[in-house]
Amino acid sequence: SDGLTVDVTFTEDTNKGDQGLSFSCDTLFTFIGNTEASCFWTSAAVMRISLSASASELVDLNSPITLLADTVRPASDLSSFLPVASINIETSPNPTTPEVFISAPKNVGTCDSPAIDVTTSTGSCGRDWKSAVLLIESVPLTVTLGDHSIFPPIVIPIGMLTAGYDYSFSYTLCNFMDVCSTSVHVMHATDVKTPIVVIQGQD
Fold first, then answer.
1. If we measure between CA atoms, which residue out of 163, 162, 182 comes closest to residue 172?
2. pLDDT higher than threshold 90 for residue 127
3. What is the phi/psi pair of residue 157, to 5°?
4. C-alpha to C-alpha distance for 200 and 193, rounded to whole angstroms
5. CA atoms of 62 and 41, how far apart (whole Å)
6. CA 198 to CA 117: how far, in whole Å?
7. Residue 59 in contact with residue 51, Cβ under 8 Å?
8. How far is 101 from 171, CA to CA, in rounded Å?
9. Confidence grade of residue 55 (pLDDT, cut at 50, 70, 90)
């Protein structure tokens, strides 16, 4: 799985379950969200499941997919059916990789409360991030904000930053396939009042 689709590979060519180009997955398989997913054959031995991001439940890594009884025949013997079988979903060799985009000012006053916004980041595969961790590092302090929701964006409290220092904000986001990416934003704190300028995207 790449997070958006799941490929089911049979050990031999099949009759494709006598299905057309696209069909409801619950015709041949049972799995979490099967009634809201669509399926199509990419070959006589490979079927692709297209997951619905709006489904009430979604499959995860190691979730089982089970072939229903009396549904798919081997191409070599159309008088018989393939046996009921279950497999667990594994990560694709080329999974979707998150891209972390930090929107935050480069210069702030010590009386400011800047937001660290990563809500435009991509690669969550249409679902909530599995984890979001923010590491703040500087000479005066090191703070780790453990797993949290990125909505709404994190706001740095007034008085947390000391004038004259640079602060490194390292944001790590992981999707449900445990694929993670990190982006770093550097912010300078000053005791001079200046307008906050927000830089969109990566540095």
1. 182
2. no
3. -65, 145
4. 22
5. 22
6. 10
7. yes
8. 9
9. confident
3-state SS assignment for residue 24: strand
Of 123-127, 137-141, 151-155, 193-197, the least confident: 193-197
Nearest 5°: CA angle at 104, between 98 and 105?
150
How far is the C-alpha of 126 from the C-alpha of 145, rounded, in Å?
24
Give yes or no for a cis peptide into 152 (omega within 30° of 0): yes
Among the residue ranges 36-40, 50-54, 119-123, 159-163, the one predicted with the least confidence is: 50-54
Cis peptide before 114 (omega within 30 of 0): no
Q: 170 forms bridges with which residues in the sheet? A: 135, 184
For residue 103, give both structure tokens.
């929107």
Q: pTM for the whole thing?
A: 0.83
Instruction: Give CA separation, 180 vs 76, 122, 203, in Å.
Output: 43, 11, 18
66 secondary structure, DSSP code: E
- Do the bridges between strand 180-190 and strand 166-174 make them parallel or antiparallel, or are there none, so unpaired? antiparallel
